[in-house]
Amino acid sequence: MNTLEYVPVPAFADNYIWLVSDGRDAVAVDPGEAAPVRAYLAERGWRLSAILLTHHHADHVGGVAELIGDTPIPVYGPAAEGIALVTHPLSGGDHVRLSLPHLELDVIDVPGHTRGHIAYFQPGGADASPHVFCGDTLFACGCGRLFEGTPAQMLASLDKLAALPGETRVHCAHEYTLSNIRFALACDPENAELRAWRDQAAALRERNVPTLPTTIAHERAVNPFLRAEAPALQRALGEQLHESISDRLQSFTLMREWKNRFR
Ligand code: ZN
Ligand code: FE
Q: Which of 60, 225, 226, 232 would disulfide-bridge 143, Cβ 3.0–4.6 Å?
């Protein structure tokens, strides 16, 4: 089995374009701009062989036209979002098999941030961790805004991701971790693992090191949006918002709304 490298290429103010490579060929996930991808490929001597898209937002698809300009390569993306440059439309339950680099991916429907948002899950093997590319659905200590979906849809999508194996490496599309942690601490102040993560993440960002990938197990422990049912969280959230919280969807919905106006 070949060893794959997973690299977050920074783009715009806080995007990551993930590249997966076997050392020769590479796949780009959500290339919102072409220039940083091209520069990184040139630096490593990698050849771009395919593009994977999670949703239609410009900061995820804006670089596709330029990247496929010279050599047409397959562009995988959600069937439900009408992205013009997609050559291989996908929806939940589909399977993607790439040969260079060798990648097998299961497609998961994760509506909420956008209506047709998909995630790509790469199951683990004997000597390899599972990986997931989740775009703007799950972030380290946070989740995407609900631009097109409902809180119930997003919660169901996050439940699917949270049910992946704990050791799954989570490749999010933005470096929002520190501001997400500030909000998470307001919702879940007693969470000792979260407080420890705040210090670790701050130290990483001070050195300009990505806080990603995170893992599903870590997110289950520290991400308030995966912990909507936790009694301590519901208690703290209820006190902050002067609400009495009785179920996890209400807890999730209140949290998501609060996050939109949290500074
Ligand atoms: Zn987005
Ligand atoms: Fe985005």
A: 225
* Strand 5-11 relative to strand 15-21, pairing: antiparallel
What separation in Å is there between the alpha carbon of 58 and the centre of ligand 1? 8
- 50 Cα–ligand 1 center, Å: 20
pLDDT at res. 204: 98
Are 185 and 194 in contact, with CB atoms under 8 Å apart? Answer: yes
Rounded Cα gap, residues 105 and 217, in angstroms? 20
Nearest ligand atom owner, CA of 12? 2
What are the residues whose beta carbon lies below 5 Å from ligand 2 (ion)? Answer: 59, 136
Sorted by sequence, the CB contacts under 8 Å of residue 87 that are 6+ apart come out as 74, 75, 76
Q: Rounded to the nearest whole angstrom, what is the distance from the C-alpha of residue 135 to the centroid of ligand 2?
A: 7
What are the sequence ranges of the domains in the chain? 5-261
Cβ atoms of 112 and 92 within 8 Å: the answer is no
Ligand 2 centroid distance, CA of 123 (Å):
24
What pTM, to 2 d.p., does this model score? Answer: 0.97
pLDDT tens digits, 31-81 = 999 999 999 999 999 999 999 999 999 999 999 999 999 778 999 999 999
Q: Which fold has domain 5-261?
A: Metallo-beta-lactamase; Chain A (3.60.15)
Q: What would the two tokens of residue 193 be?
A: 């693992």
For the chain, give percent helix, strand, coil, nearest 5.
35, 25, 40
